[in-house]
Amino acid sequence: MKRSKGGGDEEAPRQNGSASRRKADQQQSDGDEGGSDIGPADLQDDDNDQGLRREIRSKYRDLISSVQQNREDMLSPSNNKLTEVLEEANKLFKDVRQAREAALDAQLLVVATDLGKEKASQLFSEGTAFDPTAFAEHLLSFMGLNRLEDDEDEQQTTANGYLPQDAWHRLARRAECCFRTAPSFHYMMGSFYAEPPPPKQRIERQRKAPSKEAKRIMPTQLKKMEESQQEATEKEVERILGYLKSYYQDDPTSPISYYEFVIDPSSFSRTVENIFHTSFLIRDGLARMYLDEEKLPCIAPVEEGEVEAGGSTSRKQCILSISPKIWKELIDAFDIRDSIIRPPNKQND
Fold first, then answer.
1. What pLDDT is recorded for position 143?
2. CA-to-CA distance for 22 and 52, rounded, in angstroms?
3. Which residues contact 70 (CB under 8 A, 6 or more apart)?
4. Cα(284)–Cα(261) distance, rounded to whole angstroms?
C-alpha cells in the first residue's frame, strides 16, 4: 500500500542509489494500482539524490570506455555492439536531470557517431568492395581474350594477348539490354559519305548584245517624259543661277549666306528642291561655297574666267542632310522671313 506523506513514521535515510530507485519503482507501481500519480515532491527527491546521480554518471563513463576499448570489434559489419550501447544510453537519458549527466550523454553520442561514420565508410555494395582489376579481367574474358600468341591480322593486340575482331560487338550486344535506345538504322545502299560532293563548274553563257531593234522598243512617250524632266531641271538650275547672280550684283562685298539663299520658310519641300538644284551649280562650277569669318557656309557665283582657271580638280564634294526639325531651327537661328528663290508660279508676281 502507498505510504501517507503526512504520517508520523519517518523514512529511513537512503543508503545508495539502487535502493532509492527500487523505492521509486515501488511507489510508481503502488500509485498505478491506487489510481494516483507521483507528486512533484517525489521528483524533486530524485533530482537531489546524489547517489542516483553518481550511478548514472558512472554508467555513462562505463559506456564511453566500452566503446573506446572495443572499437575494432564494433567496426565489424556483423557486430551489433554499437546498437546495444545506443539503446542503453537511451534508457539512461530518461533519468538525466543535471548538466554533468547531459555532457556525458553528448560525449557518448559524439564517440558513437564517429564510430558509426567509420563503420559506414567500410561498407560496400552487397558487402564486397569493387576491384577494378578483377572487373577488367572478367571483361576481357567475356570479350574472348586469347592470351596465346597468334599471327592473324584480324585480331587486335593488347598488353596481355589478342582480342577477336567482334570483341567490341559482343560487349555492345550484352550492354544494349541495359539501355532504352532505338535500334540502329542501316542503309540498304550503304552509308552516306561525310564529304560533300564536289561543286559543279558553272558554264558562263555569253550575253547577247542588244540589237538596234530592241532599243527601238522603248516607248516614245517615255523618251519624251525623260527629256521634259531633264529640260525642266536645267531650266530650274538656270533660274536659280539668275537669282544668285542678281542678288550678288546688288552688293558684291557682302557674302551671301547659303542657308538664307536656299531655305524657304513657308515650305520644307521647296527648301529641299532648292538645295537639290543648287548642288548642280556647285557640280558644274557655276557657283562656289566657302566659310566666312564665323565659319558659316556662304555661296557666290563664279565668273567665266574663274571656271576655266579653277577646273574640276580643286572642287570638293560633301553630303548635306536636313530634316523638318533642323529646317525650323535654321529659320529661327538666321531669322529668315522671306525666301530669296521665288517659286516658279510666283515668279511673274
1. 87
2. 11
3. 81
4. 18
- Tell if the pTM clears 0.70, that is, is over it: no
325-349 as b/e: b if 16+ CB within 10 A: eebeebbeeeebeebbbeeeeeeee
Cell of 228: 521634259
Whole-number Å distance between alpha carbons of 340 and 278: 13
143 in Cβ contact with 173 (< 8 Å): no
CA nearest to 348, candidates 228, 239, 232, 238: 239
**Tens-place pLDDT, residues 24-65:** 454 444 444 444 455 555 556 666 778 888 898 899 999 999
* 32 vs 145: CA distance, rounded Å: 78
Task: Please give the C-alpha separations between residue 94 and each of 37, 44, 282, in angstroms, as whole numbers.
Answer: 18, 15, 110
Cell 558684291, residue located: 252
Task: State the chain's mean pLDDT as an integer.
Answer: 75
Q: Could you identify the residue written with the cell 537639290?
A: 276
DSSP letters, 250-278, are: H-TTSPEEHHHHH--TT-HHHHHHHHHHH
CB 289 within 8 A of CB 278: no
Q: At what angle do helices 99-121 and 81-93 cross, to 10 degrees?
A: 160
Query: Is-contact 119 75, C-beta < 8 A?
Result: yes
